[in-house]
Amino acid sequence: MSAQPNGERAPTASSVRHSGGMVTMDPHEFEALVGEALDAVPEQFMTALDNVVFLVEDDPPPDLAGCLGVYDGVPATERPAWGEPHLPDRITIFRNPTLEVCASRDDVREEILVTVVHELGHYYGMDEDRLHELGWG
User: Fold this and answer.
1) pTM for the predicted model, two decimal places
2) What are the phi and psi torsion angles at 31 (to 5°)?
3) DSSP for 87-104?
4) Which H/E stretch holds residue 12?
5) What are residue 54's DSSP bridge partners?
6) What digits encode the pLDDT tens for the residues 5-34?
């Protein structure tokens, strides 16, 4: 992860973990599953979030092709105790790549949860290696 000119960190993206058949699902159902995943995250992790928004988009930008999710912001471990206000950090979950790697709705539900937790891990300062060690990679 490298710093951007505005002082924020470069986005950290979740990559494809496995391949499967494509599931079809309308955007509203997918967003509902993202909501379920957020509800499943332990409360202490959610209440400790500061200035973070969760988004769902159909596809990642071309430079992140194939990514299931991305964290874009300054990890909590690198934020000063006080300082200049900044725009909210963003955690974005990408619908189409997720559907492409899943073979069933249950797979989609599981993959969304893994991606949400993975991106939250980046918010809390974890790198890819640590997330993989914990089984969230």
Assistant:
1) 0.81
2) -60, -35
3) PPEEEEEEHHHHHHT-SS
4) strand 12-14
5) 91
6) 334 444 555 544 444 467 899 999 999 999
Query: How does pLDDT run across 66-93, given as a tens digit for each residue?
Result: 999 999 998 888 877 776 677 899 999 9
Round to whole Å and give the CA distance between 14 and 91.
11
- Rounded CA separation 132/116 (Å): 14
Domains of the chain, each with CATH number or no CATH: 35-77+85-133 (3.30.2010.20)
Residue 5 tokens, joined: 């000119």
Contact 109, 33 (CB under 8 A): yes
For residue 55, give the nearest of 81, 77, 79, 87 by alpha carbon: 87
Helix (H, G, I), strand (E, B) or coil at 54: strand
The answer for residues whose C-beta is within 8 angstroms of residue 137's C-beta and 6 or more apart is: 17, 118, 128, 131
- Helix (H) and strand (E) counts for the chain? 5, 4
Tokens of 52: 């973070």
